[in-house]
Amino acid sequence: MPNVTFDGTAKKYGTVDSATVIALSSYFVAAYINIVNSAPQPDGKMVGAQAVALRVSGDRSAFYGVNLYGFQDTLCDDRGNHFFKDCNIRGTVDFIFGSGKSLYLNSEIYVEADPGLTVITAQARESESEDTGYSFVHGKVTGDAKGAFLGRAWKSSPRVVYAYSEMSKVVNPAGWSHNSQPERAKTVFYGEYKCTGEGASPSGREPFAKQLTEKEVQPFISLDFIGGTKWLLPPPKI
User: How many CA atoms lie within 13 A of 208 on its CB side?
Assistant: First the structure.
């Protein structure tokens, strides 16, 4: 697979403009390609070490078999409706972040080892009136990190769901974080449905995370979550 590589960092360009690929237009499609930010892994000391591989800011965009490699802030799922299928996304902290509304289908989320905090999502919804969120369906959460959170409340009202997902021991038993802001436990929407694996046990989960019912999960496991039946086309044949 071809590689698109750049080493931009937040210190050089600002976080969202450090991305190797920035897709601003609607109806953007990428397929069977590696998008890499080759900046070094943040050491916790250098300011501005965040480095984005992909920023997608257009509506109705699709990604098939795309591998995204980075550490902190790998994927800026910025805004708009997006579809990711058969993708591999790697990072350490907040490596899927932004105000997008996205369905991640049959994709692997790989948490790289890091001595600091490891978090998959920092979804940026700020009120219940915002129709944004991330849904991970029939995917895997793997990696070599320890104690990784499925999401943290970077903003006040993030919405993230994992359904039918296989979770390894990389996942923190608590599952989710209110980001040391207890009041956000009342405004987050964090849900899981029929997930499996050592990291999926509901027994140690934070009380503000929901084990969804069959009825509750339905809006998140359909293409209608992103309006996909109205715009999504099959992946290109390569």
Answer: 21
How far is CA 148 from its chain centroid?
A: 13
| CATH H-level superfamily of 3-230 | Single-stranded right-handed beta-helix, Pectin lyase-like (2.160.20.10)
Q: Which residue has the tokens 């890499």?
A: 36
Find out whether 91 and 74 touch, Cβ atoms under 8 Å: yes
Q: Examine the pLDDT at 234 and tell me if it is beyond 80.
A: yes
pLDDT, tens digit, 9 for 90 and up, residues 129-171: 999 999 999 999 999 999 999 999 999 999 999 999 999 999 9
For the full predicted model, state whether its pTM sits above 0.85. Answer: yes
Cβ within 8 Å of residue 108, ≥6 positions away: 87, 88, 89, 139, 140, 141, 142
Look up residue 72 and give its DSSP letter: T
- Looking at 94, 114, 131, 144, which residue is catalytic? 94
Q: What residues does each domain of the chain span? A: 3-230
pLDDT of residue 237: 83
N-to-C CA span, the chain? 11
Mean pLDDT of 196-223: 97
Q: Are 167 and 200 in contact (CB under 8 A)?
A: yes
- Is-catalytic flag, 94? yes
Q: What is the pLDDT of residues 93-128, one digit of tens each?
A: 999 999 999 999 999 999 999 999 999 999 999 999
Q: Give yes or no for a contact between 113 and 142, defined as CB atoms under 8 angstroms apart.
A: no
Of the candidates 25, 149, 45, the one whose C-alpha atom is nearest the C-alpha of residue 92 is 149
